[in-house]
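anyone seen this seq b4? input:
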Amino acid sequence: MLFSRTNPKSTFIILPLLLCLFVPSSSQNSESHMNTESLVFATYAEEPDALVNVALLSESLRTFGGRFSDAPVWVYVPEDLTTKVLAETAAVSKLKAGGVEFRTSVTPEDCKWFFYGGKPAAVARAEADARAGKKLLVWLDDDTVFLTEPTELLLDTRHSFGYRPVMHNRSGTLYDEPPVPFWARIYEKLSVPEQSLFPMTSVADKQKIRAYFNCGLMAVRPEKRIMKRWAEDFLLCCRDSVLARMCRENNTWRIFLHQAALVGAVVNTIPRNEMIELSSRYNYPVFFHKQYATTEPYDQIEAIVTLRTEVMINNGGPEWFRELIGPPEKIEWLRSRLVRKSDSQ
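predicted toks r here
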């Protein structure tokens, strides 16, 4: 079963994405900045089945990434599953042939019960590796696919963190209302000042919420150590008896505790003016309206740079590709690669 240990996704196979990118554009001043050869894309494979997704992520970058098509791609594998994952010889060979490099991360025992519990540790490891190599890090969830050169990920020298808001207010807290007990505990545990929680609008249902970043796509300056703090803050939350009780009583909190912990790590590490919200062309949730309440359909890929495929494959129907609006050649590219397990058996 895909992501059977900690991931609540269905058993459908999505061939996803892996992404790590960052290059500040040239400026008129004397500030130094990175070039396109100094960015890296990274993702996480918790189970062998995830390697199929990583293969598509890498292939899409090589195909549609433009000047970034040759950028390094790193896939992190939990240390305790490295042997199992790398035993998938065919998948591993394909990934290595596409220039994907395997690396390991260690998930703290206290985090393993939570969904996506290994992700913060993996991102922190990627950040440290990128910092050592003087590369800008672009972190992507495995169900990401590139369709266009991702130029917005080229953070300029003023910015240290490029993000998208969460998809919808399934687990966020409304900006104009007091935070629910779960979030109040997060803020207390991580010492998050109320004044640092600026408003943002959730992508699909357009609700005004307190700062809440989607951790499926992030461009990060490694020297700021935001992801290191995220891993540390998540571990603090996992060890908190109050939050553990809330997560036992409400599975939604158990699913999103890792993403909630990211809020404190970001706002407590860098000032607001070092953050930049990427445009809606990034992290586009194709067919999100088929599963959740949205203010508009998500079926157009004409100008999309990166998209997320989970809902498209799980809820789009057997001929989802006929409902997409956009360049026929890109729709066909997606159709020929995104296959459900049930269709291939």
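The chain has one domain: 36-344. The longest strand covers residues 213-220. kinda curious what u guys think
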